[in-house]
Write a structure and sequence with these properties.
Layout: H1 4-37, H2 47-75, H3 77-97, H4 102-134, H5 140-166, E1 171-173, E2 176-178, H6 180-186, H7 188-202, H8 217-236, H9 251-271, H10 287-321, H11 329-336, H12 338-358, H13 361-380, H14 387-414, H15 421-465, H16 472-481, H17 484-492, H18 497-505, H19 516-523, H20 525-559, E3 565-566, E4 579-580, E5 586-587, E6 593-594
Antiparallel strand pairs: 1-2, 3-6, 4-5
């Protein structure tokens, strides 16, 4: 008979892996999805669809995680986790069978992705709590290591899987043809259905519930409204506004950010006054809990946007410069990210096992310090690097983040009473997801502003080198420089933006049709990469320096967590001789155990 703790570990790891993979699988396969449903990604009306497909999943999960964790403490973690698997599978099926096309179909995909995200929030909020319930304190680091690697590493696996699936041609099945974009969503359907059946059949409720407590409706409402308003406003700050390259300065964006912060401030005021708060602010009085959550938040801010910028770097610059067509870049961008996955798989489980024996502080802090160093080294790489240089840095980056994830999660979950593990798990996951969402917006903003300042000169120089003179050079330079967001997303979408620019330029007064040879020069994959390379490289370096600084701050916070703290008993116990855990030093038993 398989021990129940292993059933919990395998099922929650599957759930974390699915939720995380589906958070990123769309990112790298967007060109195929847009093409399959018949939407031009370069039209201004397509940008909101693009942003919601990119970031909507994360916005919903980040908003719901704490609420779901709190409700799970009240109603049962297994019940809520199982429901999440069912909702996630239902959303996956809807994405696969989506019946529409064009803009209507694209918005339907956004809606179904949000349904899927609701299910993912149930899975993510409860995974760590279920593991903490099922495993003894001396084995939680190992269990958390496997689960956290599935959650964080799944984001990288999603990039690779999206690239591989995007490269598969439409599949003929008898008289029917299965489009590639549907295959991208199909991958999670059978696994989700099997996981749902397995969860309902084998998981059982063993958690300590928070009895006789009421739902904090006002806290739930203000938190959901505040975080959603903040994340959506920051996301829309990426779109051009008026003559500015970004939306910062738009009354809707700036007003939304202020309203989001105001609602969150009101939320914290409410939580300090209600008898049964959704957000247990008292948990932050525990140094291990506070430092673990804050360092995780800072690490997520650095990690989320970094992965997306690396994909842009590969797809829009490096691969075209090395002779790859834009149609090939999604697949190879995913493949080139694989060293980071290897790093996660190398360091994550080992660091979890070691943290069970030696405590989390040194491992978690060292992991973030290593990750910080790799960010600074990435900023020094030339734009047209040798891949072995990038591969080594990606592997070390994965090792650093893997070394941090498992000990930190175990430290956070060990520091809370059993009846609060659901909300603690939700709070940790909320800060991770919120950090990733803010990261994408912050990194893109840094790069777009950098492009706006240098793109005109870079493009003008490339056009001059290609013997494109006025008035055409001025028209093309203006079109590119006035929309750095379009240039950035063009690189990201795996299609040659010069084709769209030439079509748009043909309708500008004064445009002189180019000879066929000149058009062929502009449409060569390496031309666009060269045209934006100098401006992009400067902006990219700024983004990596920012990420390195944030991660270094996270390492300092992690070091401040103190000695190991384990809250593993339901009530204070009288003084007694310390017991010895297998394979490690003495472990005190009680609600404030330290090691």
């Amino acid at each position: 008979m398989v021990a129940y703790k292993w059933i919990v570990l395998t099922n929650t790891t599957l759930g974390a892996l699915l939720a995380s993979i589906d958070g990123t699988i769309v990112l790298i396969s967007l060109p195929v999805i847009f093409k399959g449903i018949g939407v031009d990604p370069f039209l201004p009306s397509s940008f909101p669809i693009l942003l919601w497909l990119l970031l909507g999943y994360g916005v919903v999960t980040a908003t719901l995680l704490v609420t779901v964790g709190r409700l799970s403490d009240m109603w049962g973690r297994v019940r809520m986790y199982n429901l999440g698997f069912a909702i996630f599978s239902g959303g996956s099926i809807l994405l696969f069978v989506e019946p529409y096309g064009g803009a209507t179909g694209a918005w339907a995909l956004v809606g179904f992705r949000l349904i899927q995200a609701v299910g993912a929030s149930f899975l993510t909020a409860n995974s760590a709590a279920l593991l903490t319930d099922a495993f003894p304190a001396a084995e939680r680091g190992k269990a958390m290591g496997i689960n956290q690697i599935a959650f964080i590493g799944g984001a990288l696996v999603g990039l690779v899987a999206g690239g591989i699936l995007a490269s598969i041609p439409n599949l003929p099945i008898g008289p029917f043809v299965l489009p590639t974009w549907r295959l991208i969503f199909l991958v999670s359907v059978p696994v989700g259905v099997v996981g749902t059946i397995w969860a309902y059949a084998r998981l059982r409720e063993i958690s300590v519930r928070s009895a006789h407590q009421r739902i904090d409706y006002l806290g739930n409402l203000t938190f959901a409204a505040g975080l959603t308003t903040l994340l959506v406003s920051v996301t829309y700050g990426l779109l051009p506004y008026g003559g500015a390259p970004t939306g910062w300065g738009s009354p809707w964006v700036d007003g939304g950010v202020l309203a989001g912060f105001a609602l969150l401030a009101l939320f914290f005021l409410i939580e300090s006054r209600v008898p049964d708060p959704m957000f247990r602010l008292g948990l932050f009085k525990n140094r291990a809990f506070a430092a673990g959550n804050l360092s995780s938040f800072l690490g997520s801010i650095a990690r989320g946007g970094m992965m997306l910028l690396l994909v842009v770097w590969f797809q829009g610059i490096w691969l075209p410069l090395h002779g790859y067509s834009f149609a090939e870049t999604p697949l190879w961008a995913g493949v080139l990210m694989m060293p980071m996955i290897a790093g996660f798989l190398t360091a994550g489980p080992v660091s979890g096992w070691l943290s069970d024996r030696h405590g989390p502080r040194l491992l978690a802090t060292t992991g973030l310090a290593i990750a910080s160093l790799t960010f600074f080294l990435l900023a020094l790489l030339p734009l047209d690097f040798q891949y072995w240089q990038m591969g080594i840095l990606l592997y070390v980056q994965g090792c650093g983040m893997g070394m941090f994830a498992a000990p930190n999660a175990a430290s956070v979950m060990n520091s809370v009473p059993p009846q609060n593990r659901g909300v603690a798990s939700g709070m940790l996951a909320t800060l991770q997801n919120t950090g990733q969402q803010l990261s994408m917006a912050l990194f893109f903003t840094i790069v777009i502003l950098g492009l706006a300042s240098g793109l005109g000169g870079s493009v003008s120089h490339s056009l001059s080198a290609a013997s494109i003179g006025p008035p055409d050079s001025g028209i093309l330079t203006t079109l590119v420089a006035s929309n750095p967001t379009g240039a950035l997303f063009g690189a990201f979408l795996g299609e040659n933006p010069m084709q769209s620019l030439l079509l748009g330029a043909a309708h500008v007064p004064g445009w002189v049709p180019l000879p066929a040879s000149a058009s062929a020069t502009l449409l060569a994959p390496h031309f666009f990469a060269n045209a934006i390379s100098s401006a992009f490289h400067s902006a990219l370096a700024d983004a990596f320096l920012f990420a390195g600084s944030v991660t270094a701050l996270g390492a300092v916070v992690s070091a401040a967590r103190g000695e190991r703290f384990i809250y593993d008993a339901p009530a204070p116990a009288p003084a007694r001789p310390p017991e010895t855990t297998p394979g490690g030093p003495a472990l005190e038993v009680g609600p404030t155990s330290r090691r």
